[in-house]
Amino acid sequence: MTAPLVEIENLRVTFGSDDGSVNEAVRGVSFSLGREKLGIVGESGSGKSLTGRSLLGVLPGYARMRADRMSFDGIDLTTASARLRRSLRGGRMGMILQDPKYSLNPVMSVGKQIVEAIRIGDRKLSRTAARTKAISALEAVQIREPERVFDLYPHELSGGMGQRVMIAMMVVREPDLLIADEPTSALDVTVRTQVMSILDELVTRRGMGLIFISHDLTLVSRFCDRVIVMYAGQIVETLDAKRLSEATHPYTRGLLACQPEINGSLEPLPVLEREASWREAV
């Protein structure tokens, strides 16, 4: 049996407040990931992004993270040096952020930014070879006229094209793990479908592991292999993506019920009612 690519046991992330109290934003999260597509869903503030950032090692300095176990391909991330964590980020582990407008450097052409990502991993590679590789990466995410786009600045790109550039930048070094944090939230439906198709093809062809963070339950159920549902910093349910409609936890059932349907009832959508028992300490 193939060993998991990622293993996390009892992950906890806390933040201190001005009054001296401690807010536990992620509470006892545990899961494993193979070379598959794992969706993490839940409301804003449920701990989805913090879980991904903890794995990547990019939490803010004022956050406190601890875990009984956190490993990537057999590497113990709880004891790994800062230098090793940096070498993994952008190389074997990548993250696609939510909005390219805020993630791309506004004063550098997108081509130079991709070249920079390539050369960080291979200092011996010439700029000409890195440029060729960057243009190939833009072609891989179905950008037309990649040579022209290479010289554009982020503000000259549409939302969909900017997101494709972000994907190209993250996959150009062929990571083993890709964390996609709401990569389609700012896109219209048509472009969203195209971007998801690109991600699906890249992950399948390169045999990567993917953590897909999203609010969109329908999208996750169609795209991912498994789904983790988070509420108030903890996992309340894990199930196969194709069986998401068969979820049993009342929180997951509530999220599903709040989704509008094209041919559904014209009655107002139900309001998600939360129970105090869902927040019990773990």
Describe the structure.
This protein is an alpha/beta fold and 282 residues long. 34% of the residues lie in helices and 23% in strands. The protein is built from 10 helices and 11 strands. The strands form 2 sheets. Strands 7-8-9-3-10-11 form a 6-stranded mixed beta sheet, sandwiched between helices. A hairpin with a 2-residue loop joins strand 10 (226-231) and strand 11 (234-240). The radius of gyration is 20 Å and the shape is globular. The mean pLDDT is 88.
Compact description:
It contains ten helices and eleven strands. By secondary structure, it is of the alpha/beta class. The model has no long low-confidence stretch (mean pLDDT 88).
CATH C-level name of the largest domain: Alpha Beta
CATH superfamily grouping of the largest domain: P-loop containing nucleotide triphosphate hydrolases
Write down the secondary-structure element order.
EEEHEEEHEHHHHHEHEHEEH
Which overall shape is indicated by the principal axes computed on the Cα atoms?
globular
- Compute the average pLDDT: 88
Strand content: 15-25%
Task: Count every helix, treating DSSP H or I runs of 4 or more residues as helices.
Answer: 10
Q: How many β strands by DSSP?
A: 11
User: Strand arrangement, largest sheet?
Assistant: 7-8-9-3-10-11
Class of secondary structure makeup? alpha/beta
Helix content: 25-40%
Main beta-sheet annotation: 6 strands, mixed
How many domain regions?
Answer: 2
CA gyration radius, whole angstroms: 20 Å
CATH architecture of the largest domain: 3-Layer(aba) Sandwich
| N→C terminal distance | 30 Å
